[in-house]
Amino acid sequence: MALRNVLKVENDNESLRIKCRDIKVIDDKIRTLAADMLETMYAQNGVGLAAPQVGVLKKLIVIDIGEGPVTLINPIIVYQKGEQEEIEGCLSVPGVWGTVKRPQRVIARGENLDGEVIEVEGEGLMAIALCHEIDHLSGTLYTDKVIRYIDPSEMEDRRK
Ligand code: ZN
After folding, report:
1. What is the Cα Rg of the chain in Å?
2. Which residues are found with C-beta within 5 Å of the ion, ligand 1?
């Protein structure tokens, strides 16, 4: 496994704005990519990472909100319910936080690394993470949806 470079919007990175391609074959390259993405996410204390953030324009996301790693290939949201407005940040938009409206509960469908179709249900933070990462696959950043930006000093106060 290896750490990957996380692309930042401040470098005007086009890769973050392009619609990603479906993954048709799950080979060692994809498995290595998923492992590298998790390692990179953990190293930066993130809760999610999408392949375009490491410059790979393919539909792959990894998430860990503290309940173990989730890897989803070609994910889509198939169910959503309710609403929540919480603060989000993004490893590709460092030093910026803002509130976004998301569903309270979602179900995402995709494939795991064995090519099996799986559904992942998320509530609260997990629902946010699924929506945020799946958005990346169509070139959408959470900053496109921000309702209110949070002052960094306000974020310091929130940190435990
Ligand atoms: Zn992000």
Report:
1. 15
2. 90
Angle formed at CA 86 by CA 93 and CA 9, multiple of 5 degrees: 10
Amino acid occupying residue 123? E
How confident is the model over 18-27, as pLDDT tens digits?
A: 999 999 999 9
Q: Give the residue-averaged pLDDT of 107-124.
A: 98
- What is the DSSP code string of 75-139? EEEEEEE--EEEEEEETTEEEEEEEEEE-SEEEEEEE-TTS-EEEEEEETHHHHHHHHHHHHTTT
Of 73, 12, 13, 80, nearest to 37 by C-alpha is 73
Distance 6 CA to ligand 1 centre (A): 10
List phi, psi (to 5°) of 7: -70, 145
- Span from the CA of 133 to the centroid of ligand 1 (angstroms): 6
Distance from residue 155's CA to the centre of ligand 1 (Å)? 17
Please give the order of strands across the beta sheet that includes 60-63. 48-50, 60-63, 70-81, 105-111, 117-123
Measure 93 CA to ligand 1 centroid, in angstroms.
7
Q: How confident is the model at residue 160 (pLDDT cuts 50, 70, 90)?
A: very low
| pLDDT per position as a tens digit, 98-107 | 999 999 999 9
What amino acid positions are annotated as catalytic residues?
Answer: 133
